[in-house]
């Protein structure tokens, strides 16, 4: 590929008539001359490889994956490479031989083949190293061989046109052979080799196809096409998704961020302590000043460590993505320059045709390279997003596992869920906007340089116009924020009211208050929609100002340029290149404030995360734990629990809640802790668990600990998983535990036995069932020490006695273990070995039951108060009078909250039947089914009926009117562009265009008409969306309110509130926004198609296939994307639920030392979420890359057709066509994405209509009945005759055979 292979001796450059013998020779100084292309082709490929090659070698040396087999592909590449080396060696040898023969040769005939010989040798060496390091497809060599194809192609064309084969056959044959070899190498570089022979990573069941894809497939994301096709053929499921790579797994990502966070936080703490110490030594203003300074330093250092940790784990990916974006912007600004050259070519009748084709190809290549680099930037940063989301979520989860009791008092579970579901996504999604803080400024500078070159000083007026629009947008933004805040206040008020109604629906229905509460909700809803309507209209004005800013700037600039200076005339190059540059400038103007606003919002979320991660944690050294079991030292009766001079507080800043506790508990002792409410009984157990901050003293516990909290904590899993709690299943021991805890009757009534799924927070269990399940979990553990915080509180008296005798008491399952029982059930105290009475956070007295009675101290006073009915403690009342039915069904789902009638409604079974029931099998796990109350997920595409439902809610006339307005504004846009092309083609007389004033006035009028039409169409969409939201919300509210009470017992309140919050918000905001975007992009595509067709009718041959491909991509993507979004939403809900569940049961998890298994479960949930998120983001890139390529093909087709029809076209019309086609590249993908987003949002309409098909109550009022009939009774009477009731139709009778009568004036 040297010049000796491409030119005859003494002819360093191409001569005339290379491409067309009839065309004149191009000027020597032309940038696009053939001589320049040949020179670039000689030196660019070697420079490319020698610059990138060493860097690439270093990279693959550090990221080796194991060596590849010596495949046929590798052997072919090596053979072709050595053939090229031999060919270049022969070229050098021939040149040296000719010099020895006395035939003078130009220096480049020796230098060029020598350089190419060294470069090709280096390329062959890279092929060998790639096989050793497991590289299956090389992007560096792909680019090298692609560049190498340019020079042989030009030289072969030159030599073929010169027809000098007889004069130098060696050189001609060498040129053709070199071309064949290089093209073959390029084709082989488009293929991928096999997987590594001994991979460093273990093989996966369903590996991601990216690793084995070729470089073109990676660049265009074609490797995801198989998944997209499967999603089009049938709904995707978890089995269709790829296995997660180690680099994207939660374990790897969280460990990296956790190490960086710990390291930076420790460094910040050391710096703060050092600064505080130095400040304390230098200041002489007292202790308060130094403490204040240290506090401020701690507050200021919260953000820094987390920011540095995130930067350290993500900087390489972020910088590589930023580099791709910068390269993409280089090609972005190359396109206007090439358009300028192309319009100059169109305006020059004497220009050769090859130059037009070459510019068209260069425009296509520049646009394609811009697309590829921009999509690589998006891909890398999107992958970084999901990685950081997993890492930060894992960091938050690990913080949840370590939160102290004091920190939990200042943080609610909703706050933690908001961190995971709102703040973490908002922070990670903002990564894309970080480059928007500086890159638009570069765009603006480059754009003004372009405008100055085109228009001279007239370009300064563009600055004035842009600055004049800023106050308008600032005012609109300020007013819109005010109305948005008002809307949010009304939304919060409505959410609180609907939540209150649904959580107390039984009371509302019993009193017949449905109508009154619905009126209140609808009144608040009306105020909310009013604020939303005003905010939406203001947003429409703001959008129109951005949309027409390009037109306003163009109008002012063109007017100043043509009217102020006489010698300036409008031409196609100035008009349409200016419009292209102004479009880039408009994007920069919109992108910069959007990025600033997003970064400000993300900073709020970042501060919330940093504050949470800096909360106080449980001190792992607060309790000295010994692994030895006390049961091994029964003879010695060693102390299992020892507290010496213990003083404890809920947090480091709060006052102590326990004072000078001295307590020793020997092995096997049953210690009862009693005292009035607020005496510190639960705090004592928390101190023994290490949950409290230890002010002074020491705590020691020998052996594993099991803990039963006062408020039962149940996981959303099966019964057996709750009881075993990450331990191996022992069926015999499980049976004994369930029987002792009085759970066998309940398990026997469950549909799948112990494999029955328990709903979120145990919503399908009663309060007593949850408490007994919590106790069974502790008993199953076989621990040495049991801390029982009032486990009998929610149990019926006889059930509580059974549990105490069979589990806790001297003859129970735990008789040989150490038990500390906090209780208000004073009747069990005689069976305790030792009693501790607490008062005001201190031990009032302790001893055996008889000793304390003889002392007549605090315990006797407590017993006396318990015997006084009017002065009974609230907790004691619940203990002694609760009447929870031990045989309650799993379907009742109603925790016992107070005293009930002591009336036996269901006869007991005989002992034989009961014995048979208790020996029932554990149940079939296949019958367990999903958890109760699980929300449904739709499959496949959204039905057309849902679109019709929304259209009817908007109103058919309003929909047709909106379409008419969009059509009118697009017609005005087309006429404005066409009028500009006519203006550019006007002849100049004396350096001026005679009709410039008329052209300017009409151009401005058409632009104003378009702006008015755009504003009216957007406002119509907003008003139609508000109308539809109001109607759909009223339907939903009416459907739910008319549902029977059984519906509310079966349906979790969270599902209902989700419809009234998230789904309603999507219908309010997202659907009108996506519909507006879809209509704008769709009509814009129609305009571009019309423009290209009118200007170059030959382009129809390209437009029709492109439309078919566009439709195909759209159909494939929409079906797959909708299902992936549903799967991602479902998987993310698991993550949020698990975080909330762990937050509520953190003390239990730490007491059981189960943090490791819970972290593993969180990693599993995050990995499942990552498995869905990764294919979805790749599918987005697949769509964007391929649709932008289709748009680039349309630009190429318009340019080529313009070259072919050059004699019949004006420069203005060509500029109109090509500049319009340049805008379609991103419009295509945004049109499909808007359609996809709209379909995903229509799912909310589908979910809001779900309850329209559920059973409804009878009408609240009958129109045929008068309000008060004349024979209204004066005395009331209630009579029940053989009454039977069930909670739901599918459940057994809960009340059977009840008959009684209540006469007038009686109270039952």
Please estimate the helix content: 55-70%
Strands across the major sheet, in which order?
6-7-8-4-9-10
Euclidean distance between termini CA atoms: 107 Å
- What is the count of helical runs? 41
The coarse silhouette is globular
> What characterizes the major β-sheet?
6 strands, mixed
Percent in strands = 5-15%
Strand-pairing-aware structural class = alpha/beta
Mean pLDDT: 79
* Quaternary structure state of the chains depicted: single chain
- State the total count of DSSP E strands: 12
Rg for CA atoms: 39 Å
Q: Report low-confidence residues grouped into runs of 5 or more.
A: 1-30, 283-300, 629-635, 870-921, 929-933
Which short descriptors sum up this protein?
1308 residues; alpha/beta; 41 helices; 12 strands; 64% helix; disordered N terminus
Layout of strands and helices, then pairs:
Layout: H1 3-6, H2 34-62, H3 72-100, H4 108-133, H5 139-148, H6 150-162, H7 169-189, H8 215-220, H9 225-233, H10 250-282, H11 287-300, H12 303-346, H13 353-402, H14 405-410, H15 413-429, H16 431-434, H17 439-455, H18 460-503, H19 505-511, H20 514-563, H21 572-613, E1 624-626, E2 639-649, E3 656-666, E4 670-674, H22 681-689, E5 693-702, E6 705-708, H23 719-724, H24 731-740, H25 744-749, H26 767-780, E7 785-789, H27 797-808, E8 818-822, E9 834-839, E10 842-847, H28 849-855, H29 858-867, H30 874-881, H31 911-918, H32 944-954, H33 956-985, H34 996-1041, H35 1045-1050, H36 1053-1095, H37 1100-1144, H38 1146-1151, H39 1155-1204, H40 1211-1222, H41 1224-1248, E11 1278-1285, E12 1295-1302
Parallel strand pairs: 1-5, 4-8, 4-9, 6-7, 7-8
Antiparallel strand pairs: 2-3, 2-5, 9-10, 11-12
Helix pairs in contact: 2-4, 2-5, 2-6, 3-4, 3-7, 5-7, 6-7, 9-37, 10-11, 10-12, 10-13, 12-13, 12-21, 12-40, 13-15, 13-39, 15-21, 15-37, 17-21, 18-20, 18-36, 20-21, 20-34, 21-33, 21-40, 24-26, 32-34, 32-41, 33-34, 33-36, 33-40, 34-36, 36-40, 36-41, 37-39, 37-41, 39-40, 39-41
